[in-house]
Write a structure and sequence with these properties.
Blueprint lengths: L2 H17 L8 E3 L8 E4 L4 H4 L3 H15 L3 E7 L2 E6 L1 H13 L12 E5 L11 H19 L3 E8 L4 H13 L5 H4 L3 H25 L4 H7 L1 H14 L3 H25 L5 E4 H18 L3 E2 L5 E4 L7 E5 L7 H15 L3 E9 L3 H13 L8 E6 L2 E2 L15 H18 L8 H21 L7 E2 L2 H4 L7 H20 L6 H4 L7 H11 L1 H11 L2 H21 L8 H24 L9
Parallel strand pairs: 5-6, 5-11, 6-7, 11-12, 13-14
Antiparallel strand pairs: 1-2, 2-4, 3-4, 8-9, 9-10
Helix pairs in contact: 1-3, 4-20, 5-21, 6-8, 6-10, 8-9, 8-11, 12-13, 15-16, 18-22, 18-23, 20-22, 20-23, 21-22, 22-23
This protein binds one RNA strand through strand 10, helix 14, strand 14, helix 18 and helix 21.
Length: 595
Amino acid sequence: MNIDLTLREAIQQQLQNLFGKQAEQLQIQPTNPEFEGSHTLVCFSLTKISGKNPEDTAKLIGEALVQQNSIVAGFNVVKGFLNLILKDNAWLQVLQQLASKTHYGQLPKNGKEIMIEYSSPNTNKPLHLGHLRNNFLGWSVAEIYKANGYKVHKVQIINDRGIHICKSMAAWKLYGNGETPKTSGIKGDHLVGKYYVVFDKQHKTEMQALISKGLTEEEAQKQTPIMREAIDMLRKWEYRDPDTLQLWKTMNSWVYAGFDETYKKMGVDFDKLYYESNTFLLGKEQVITGLEKGVFFKKEDGSVWVDLTSDGLDQKVLLRSDGTSVYMTQDIGTAILRFHDFPNIEGQVYTVGNEQEYHFKVLFLILQKLGYAWAKQCYHLSYGMVDLPTGKMKSREGTVVDADDLIAEMVAEAKTQTLELGKTDELSQEEAEQLFQMIGLGALKFFLLKVDPKKRMLFDPNESIQLQGFTGPFIQYTHARIQAILRKANQLGIEINTTKIGEVTQLEPIEKTLIFVLSNFENKLAEAAKDYSPAIIANYVYEVAKTYNQFYQTISIFQETDPAKLQLRIGLSKLVAHVIKKSMHILGIQVPERM
RNA sequence: GGUCCGAUAGCUCAACUGGAUAGAGCAGCUGCCUUCUAAGCAGCAGGUUCGGGGUUCGAGUCCCUGUCGGAUCACCA
């Protein structure tokens, strides 16, 4: 029984009986806890069809529902709000129905396909805190869509080409002395990142030297020996110079090995990878075709542009005067290639920071102008920056929080606190290590995902490391607690039988609240998909855990003598554990049996 | 300067998309472990929702205006 639907139908029927007319829309909301009831009908807008004031309207509807309907037991009216009290029996039916579903929270396949892009790093430095928010978000949104019945393709575009990687290459060539991840013992992405920093330092000192010789800053910027080396490498790369290509491949492979390790630690994965080095040429072709079709235009110097002034935007360059491609060129190519590879996808979601909103607005417009109908189904999942208490993260100033370091710190903190609480007594060494990982990573992911993606957020290391309150570990703990109960039930030989639950005659208020919260799960999943927001799931699962802990604390399960009630409470616990596990999975967080 | 986003308790965030007396966590203060896990629960305290107008039965939410963050407007990615 869908309680919401049943209620709506009943109300519409009574409106018909009472006033000879149904409402276009019924506004039903959860009842404010200070009043009795669970569902509240807001009656202000119904005065139009009742011709009476809100209070009288509410009263009439309430009386009619109690008289004629099977699920409403009572009501009260406050101003224009009709608070409905449902029969215990209705709650029991809801619970029985939810408990009998084997895949509650997994909607049936809807035949739709969607592509979600996230991560998409540059290959010249390791991943940092900003990437963590990006990866967790993208991965979780993919899971949200899966739970809603979509077939999902998780992809990323790897920016493996361009001046940024040439900078690391140049620095390594000049100052690396053949150092490799093996000889140095440094993780590949960190090693390449190290030479990016070397480049920057060297470039700055060389610039000073040039400026003191009388060059302007702008001139010096482009003429330092190390910058010349990098630019030369980029040119050689474009011309397929074998040595340059070899170095490029080698250093990128170091980075990929490093990334793979980090992704694995993060619990993030992809179905397909796209490389900029493979897509930028396709983008070029598209631009040339567009030029021939008259969608774009060429300036005297040979550069190709798109004019978006009629759309309220500016002109945008698509090919430089020397014929080389820009960021936009490559993104055009990538988008088209993806729809070619996966013809059934109905849209693409780009998980990219909000500083690129303008870029994506332009990209989608260009794709539309090129005549791709699917361009309207492209969505920029734009998320806010992660700030530190010290301010903005800047890689050049060294105020970056490294992803590997942060994960290690979180796990270490989880270990310290877990050992302090003496929670590892029953666990083997290996189980304990797994638990620390689960808790540390769970705390981190939950911390980053509980905030509305669109909003800029503050990452306070002290707060993120907390394991009490509105945190991942709090929810993991609740799950472990329930598992202890289920183990005990198992020992006592109690098996859950949903028909037995139906014999219960009276429910505690907290039990009704819990059933109500649980019955909202699939609505929340739909809402989260619509808004591309794991935060909705995070807030929801917190509410579930909190409500369960209230239940747990007020009711002693195994002291119950009525076998039907015992069944109900264990069944309810089991369902809560299921919803927690599924929700947390959607957030990319594992959940322990003990902690 | 143009465009876009944001501002809610000391701090970090919510608020069912216009509903009732704006809710949580952290920090502070009180209680509760001989019972199924106290990483928990119950309670106290904490608010002019940035200021000012407007729209209506009703505004943190919508409109106008001002103030203060921020992002973006590159032949960078």
